[in-house]
Amino acid sequence: MALKKGELTTGVISGIRSKRGAAFALNNLRMSSNIKVKRICEFCGNSFLARTTVTRFCSHICNSRYGKRKVREEKIQASEKQVVATVVATAKDIVVAEFLTVREAARLLNISIRGIYNIIQTGRIKAVRLTPRKTLIKRIDIDQMLALAEFKVPVLKARKKNPHPKYCYSITEAQQVLNFSEKALWDLLKRNNIPKYRDGKFSYVLKSDLNNFSNQND
User: Fold this and answer.
1) How far apart are CA 27 and CA 9, in angstroms?
2) Is the pTM here over 0.70, yes or no?
């Protein structure tokens, strides 16, 4: 018989001798409850009416899918940790190894395998070809190559300052001055090495350069 709400008192509970009987009584009380609580499903994010304040999912489907997703995420995390551990272990082995394969040398220098073969062909490091598919390089040879290498710091050239627009023709203005089409004007500038200047998406030509060319061809 189901107990009504509020009837489960201390005296009633003390009268129930077995644990099974107490659990059955509590279950009947919960089942007979008319409480409805608005909750948000942890899987689909939809709101639903629950009968308890601890309900996490709106349906058994969401509950099952949440469990599967959690298992999948745990497997992915375990796989990523394993990959990181393998990479770290491999890097440590490369650092202390006396001989390296071409792939290991490429990983050590952070260049491509083709780059390692190019270095070998230029004679900067020596390599021993044990089999058609396996070539070994001494780690000490790589260290010596790096010790003798000269590292040049690239010098940045100062950017040329564009002339003031009042001393220049735009491409459209240059076309009008010479009575050329746009293609003919670009060919002319390229053929005669007349410098061009850019300001954003616009190109300009010095008036003096264009006037000198025009006077020479009159």
Assistant:
1) 15
2) no
C-alpha 136/C-alpha 103 separation (Å) is 10
Domain residue limits at 85: 47-91
pLDDT, tens digit, for every residue of 9-68? 554 455 545 555 555 555 554 544 567 889 999 999 999 999 888 899 999 999 999 999
**Position 68 in a domain:** yes
Estimate the crossing angle of helix 113-121 against helix 102-109, to 10 degrees: 100
53 in a domain, yes or no? yes
Quote the CA–CA distance of 22 and 35 in Å, as a whole number.
21
Contact 42, 57 (CB under 8 A): yes
Answer for the pair 197, 163: CB distance below 8 angstroms, yes or no. Answer: yes
Helix (H) or strand (E) holding 85: helix 60-96
**Is 40 within 8 Å of 66 (Cβ atoms)?**
no
pLDDT digits (tens, 9 = 90+) for 54-105: 899 999 999 999 999 999 999 999 999 888 887 777 767 676 788 889 988 8
Rounded to whole angstroms, the Cα distance separating 65 from 215 reads: 82
CA nearest neighbour of 40 among 54, 53, 57, 52: 57
Q: Is residue 6 part of a domain?
A: no
